[in-house]
Design goal:
alpha/beta, seven-stranded mixed sheet, single chain
Length: 326
């Protein structure tokens, strides 16, 4: 039944479209319509429409209107007319090695991330996603620098997290991080439900970039922001490979170029705005804890790779070698 419903949804998306447009594509994501992802996506849509004379149209669907990440990704694998901003951990449900991209404490900065993303290792993983699962990666951007935040518990060392329930994306790399790095109880939960979960005390902690905390107003119920900087959050923009392949060569080039422009814009916005986001959260009442020894948290991340027997042999070491130029 689940497969049938997913197929039906994909067929509906594949056959729908607005009159006068050769191809209409839905751009789905979980952020609000005021978030920089939506703004950059809209700029991409406008540029694609102009450059193709309206023959390719992209409509924005923010705030999980088409479903949360796993649902959007499933529809893409089934050939839906979709572009999606989804987490690497979600794609890792189809291609396990994809999860290496968001391994905690992997990168010193975005330059390190670019070394890995441009490597033959990642190119091979992307090819697997496209050939076996119909997932085409258009580009990557830095969604932000992820920090820990809590409802009412100040945290300075990992042991301060003992016994806390921490919201986590429902993917292994995040659940293992919560258990091994933070020593908390992972509580998988869709992003749109986190605000009410904080308000009701269902969860004690979460982790996200400052911009995302602001976007969802979690500061209204979370008192502490702890600058763990545990993940440079890289997010791909993906689309149905079969849809991309149906476009003319000229239209493929336009979509790819404008996606690259969108990713560059989002990366700049996210990284340039990190400290401003921290400052704004402080102005809204959150207590910012920055005097922590990050190495105490980072040291606990080494064992996360052991939780992935499905990863290719030596994947973590290969990723480190790509970053270090070995």
């Amino acid at each position: 039944m689940k497969h049938y419903l997913g197929t039906a949804a994909a067929l509906l998306l594949a056959t729908s479209g607005l009159a006068g447009a050769e191809t209409t594509i839905r751009f789905a994501h979980m952020n609000s319509d005021s978030h920089f992802v939506n703004k950059a996506g809209q700029a991409m849509a406008d540029a694609v429409a102009e450059r193709t004379g309206g023959e390719v149209r992209i409509d924005m669907f923010p705030s999980g209107q088409i479903g949360e990440n796993s649902q959007v990704t499933e529809q893409i694998t089934l050939g839906g007319d979709l572009i999606g901003q989804v987490g690497p951990g979600t794609i890792a449900n189809y291609v396990p090695d994809f999860g290496i991209i968001v391994y905690p404490f992997m990168y010193a900065d975005f330059a390190d991330a670019q070394k890995l993303l441009s490597s033959e290792l990642i190119q091979g993983i992307e090819a697997q996603a496209e050939e076996q699962n119909n997932i085409k990666v258009l580009c990557y951007f830095a969604f932000g620098i992820r920090d820990l935040y809590t409802r009412d518990t100040p945290v300075h060392v990992p042991e301060d997290m003992a016994g806390l329930k921490m919201r986590v994306q429902p993917t292994t790399v995040y659940t293992e991080m919560v258990k091994q790095v933070f020593g908390a109880a992972p509580t998988p939960m869709p992003w749109p439900e986190v605000y009410s979960a904080f308000a009701q005390g269902v969860i004690d902690a979460g982790e996200a970039p400052p911009a995302a905390i602001l976007d969802q107003k979690h500061y209204e119920h979370a008192k502490y922001l702890i600058q763990t900087n545990h993940i440079l959050d890289l997010s791909p923009i993906v689309m149905s490979a079969s849809l991309f392949n149906r476009l003319s060569g000229e239209h493929q080039a336009v979509v790819q170029e404008e996606a690259d422009n969108a990713c560059a814009s989002m990366t700049k916005t996210a990284l340039d705005g990190y400290q401003a986001g921290i400052d704004e959260l402080a102005s809204k009442g959150m207590t910012v804890i920055s005097d922590i020894d990050k190495s105490l948290f980072a040291a606990k991340a080494a064992g996360i790779a052991d939780a992935f027997p499905e990863w290719s042999d030596g994947l973590y070491d290969a990723a480190r070698a790509a970053i270090e130029g070995k």
